[in-house]
Amino acid sequence: KLEKFLDLCIVLCGIATLVFYSGAVESKFYVERFAAIYAIDMCLATVYYLLEFIYIRKRSHGIFFSLLKYIVLTLMTFCTIFSWVFMQPFYRNASENLQYAYLGMHCVMPILMVLEYLVGEKGHFNKKFIITNMALLIIYGGVVLLCGQYAHTGYPYAFLDPEQLGYSIVLKECALICVVYYFYSNLILMFDHRFKKRDRKSTRLNSSH
Hints:
mainly alpha
């Protein structure tokens, strides 16, 4: 099936991207890079589509795997849009290996994920998923701020650095991102329901003929 082929492509792309991103091609491992939310999502997405390739398609998706797919798809595409709009100057100045990683992370991987979603079965997402999705984003922001403040781990993004911007600005920016992400999560859910209704309608038309 085309879905299984796309699953495999996503897994291979995810592994290759993580190899370049982690520094493994330089015989190094930059653990601090994995504090970025898109790196965490890349790891989750690679694991999810590997499970989908070898396990899930043989059985029902179930609530857990449907939730996991919703999270990785929503977060990956949101981070891609955010990166293309705001992070281009930073990416242009990155090393060659990082540019390869960003190409996989913010171009190839999201496109493959969207294609896999479009050709696959839809209608597994529900509105309760948004609560978990938002909670994970808020928890991530809280953990980053706490670790940066008390464990002195640094901050993966400049807009999350209260030492440079102050907590009032950081919290306002976080609140704005949460609001935008909430509406984006609803948009993904709306598309999923719209596609489900369209697929049901086409199935009825085909069965009537």
